[in-house]
Amino acid sequence: NELDDKVILKADGMPTYHLANIVDDYLMQISHVIRGEEWLSSTAHHVLLYRFLDWEEFMPAFAHLPLILKPSGNGKLSKRDGVKLGIPVFPLSWVGESPEDSFTGFREAGFDPAAVLNFLALLGWNPGTEQEIFDLESLSEIFSLEKIHKGGARFDYEKAKWFNQQYLHHASIDSLANQLRPSFEAKKIQVEADFFEGFIKLYRERVIYFQDFYEQGYYFFEPIREFDLKTLQKKWTTDRIGFFQSLVEKLSVFSNWEADQLEILIKSEMNAANIGPGDVFPILRIALTGIPQGPNLFETLSLMGSEFATSRMKESFMKFDELLSVA
Prior knowledge:
By secondary structure, the chain is mainly alpha-helical. The chain contains 15 helices and 4 strands.
């Protein structure tokens, strides 16, 4: 007597959600229905439908979750917020008829599925401890509906990025190689297993998303896109050109191309010329990669290999004067 009337079957014979979901759950033998709190007001109607259909003994247990809120905390998160803020809110991308109806998914944004699951599990729930990183097995053991917060949970995309970063940092090299290889092959890049593992080790602790591996280390596979002219203007001086040219010549005939041995050789040459790291390392990095920062310089040199690295440096040194004259 206290409930409003609901249309459960339209005049054309098409059932509305209220009837369709009850019949569907009954036929699939659904034991638990876990849905958003906006369905609380309809739950009494659904319970009555189970009774009227004489299915009450098969009625699932109902649980209702608080809403996921916008990153600002004001209002329910919507798919439009994803477009507006440039963040994923769906597992997979969806291409609609217009940009407004197209949405980027977590997978295409470069997230590990396990990291997304971990992030979502802690969105409005916590285990009562300081632990944040869980695998699926441990989550299934300790998760309980009773510990879900009553209030809405703010969708913290920065926290989602942190989870993904942690998962990529701690993933095994083999696992990352298997996940990354298809995207490299799509770029027509075929690499040997040993090189690929070394490449992943070099960038694993520097990335947030899967695509960061290539974006940060693209210069291993294609020419340098752009040189850091601001740093070059400060560090590249004509009186040191001879030092760098001599260093590259010695590197080109150096036989022990291991990171630690390369470090010994380069630092020895620097000491002999009385030039400090601040005047040498940025130039070598820019010559190799275009930028003055990145993974360990000597490990980068070692992975590039003697022929590639020395050729790249010679080519870059020849461009520096021309680039700076234009700048």
